[in-house]
Design brief:
single chain; 11 helices; binds zinc ion; binds nicotinamide-adenine-dinucleotide; alpha/beta; 364 residues; Quinone Oxidoreductase, Chain A, domain 1
Length: 364
């Protein structure tokens, strides 16, 4: 039976989000309905409502969530009702040309639910990143549910579903940070601070946080940055070079989504170093670089989709590290709010006041 739940909807470009009645169908073949317990507010939700991702309004926002599987459709074998899961937005298909080549984290044909959730009047909703979890319940592809140890707090665990995983993976997987490396992270929001935590876990010995906001620089240090650079007043490229023996960092991670910052990351890198682009650009942005610098500096420029993670492999490992006290996911939770608090949380994010506001569902 179709269920009526409350969810946060962006109806038009730039317009304030509203809490609306959302109709959630029973799961069909390969689908699951999840009772959401907690869902973080990510900058990508704001990109959606600003029209920066596409124009498929109305959007059902939210995509960094943990919850309990309520029901599964025919043919689902990977999860059962009652499982505690983190939702992922790259459920790999196992069959596309990338999966077949043994590179499932690049899967070119990831799964989402086939049926659509709708508004009460039948208007089809576009769920953010195929999830839509600023809602009491959501319909996803069963592969988007990754079971993890249920002792983890949902507010903290859910954050692995997007930004924190993207940041950790930008360092540990895309950037392949290793022992003794120097790493500079540009933008110390939720994603950037996770990249810092990932660099520390991977054994980097110089970890530099760069941001315009002093509060973010303090957070970067609390996650293990060994030095910080205030981009509002310092020459970023010069300072990163100074902090790395005059050479530049082995791995520079762009976690803002800004061409100027990409350029800084490019020039703040050592010879044969790596630039990781994890911040999401908008369609109008362009990068222009002297080709001789691209060639002459060598190394690698690598975009990072979801931190190049494989949810089924990486979420359980990272939850174990969290439960062992080796990865402080709780530190990312700046505040908990209700569904009606999302619009205000966007403003707090824009003002730089939070790492993550996390929506907690009543009664969960
Ligand atoms: N690649 C992925 O799979 C993936 C996943 C999740 C989020 N993202 C993207 O990562 C980016 C960061 O997300 P977030 O949630 O951490 O956002 P956020 O708003 O919390 O953090 C952005 C940070 O960048 C800082 N900043 C802005 N301009 C800057 C500049 N010129 N120099 C230095 N710092 C600057 C801000 O002060 C802020 O601290 C966004 O673009 C988001 O869409 C990517
Ligand atoms: Zn695939
Ligand atoms: Zn996100």
């Amino acid at each position: 039976m179709t269920q009526e739940v409350r969810g946060v909807v962006a109806r038009s470009k730039g317009g304030p989000v509203t809490v609306e009645t959302v109709l959630v169908p029973d799961p069909g073949p390969g689908e699951a309905v999840v009772a959401v317990q907690a869902c973080g507010v990510c900058h990508t939700d704001l990109h959606y409502r600003e029209g920066g991702i596409n124009d498929d309004f109305p959007f059902l926002l939210g995509h960094e969530a943990a919850g309990i599987v309520e029901a599964v459709g025919p043919g689902v074998t990977g999860v059962v009702p009652g499982d505690f899961v983190i939702l992922n937005w790259r459920a790999v298909c196992g069959e596309c040309r990338s999966c077949r080549r043994g590179r499932p984290w690049y899967c070119f044909s990831t799964h989402n639910a086939t049926q659509k959730m709708t508004l009460a009047d039948g208007t089809l909703l576009s769920p953010a990143l195929g999830i839509g979890s600023f809602a009491e319940k959501t319909l996803v592809a069963a592969g988007q549910c990754t079971p993890v140890d249920r002792r983890a707090r949902p507010e903290a665990a859910g954050l692995l579903g997007c930004g924190v995983m993207a940041g950790l993976g930008a360092s540990m997987l895309t950037g392949e940070v290793g022992r003794g490396d120097s790493v500079a992270v540009f933008g110390c929001g939720g994603v950037g601070c996770a990249a810092i935590a990932g660099a520390v876990l991977a054994g980097a010995t110089t970890v530099i946080g760069v941001d315009l906001d002093a509060r973010k620089l303090a957070l970067a240090q609390s996650f293990g940055a060994t030095a910080v650079v205030d981009a509002s007043s310092e020459d970023v490229v010069e300072r990163v070079r100074e902090l790395t023996g005059g050479h530049g960092a082995d791995v520079c991670i762009e976690a803002v989504g800004n061409p100027k910052v990409f350029e800084q990351a490019f020039f703040a890198r050592d010879l044969a170093g790596t630039v990781v682009q994890v911040g999401v650009p908008t369609p109008d942005m362009k990068i222009e670089l002297p080709m001789i610098e691209f060639f002459g500096r060598g190394g690698r420029l690598k975009p990072s989709w979801y931190g190049d993670c494989l949810p089924s492999r990486d979420f359980p490992i990272l939850i174990d590290l969290y439960l062992q006290g080796r990865l402080d996911l709780d530190r990312f939770v700046s505040e908990t709010i209700g569904l009606e608090g999302v619009e205000e949380a966007f403003h707090r994010m824009e003002r730089g006041e939070v790492l993550r506001s996390v929506v907690v569902m009543v009664g969960s």
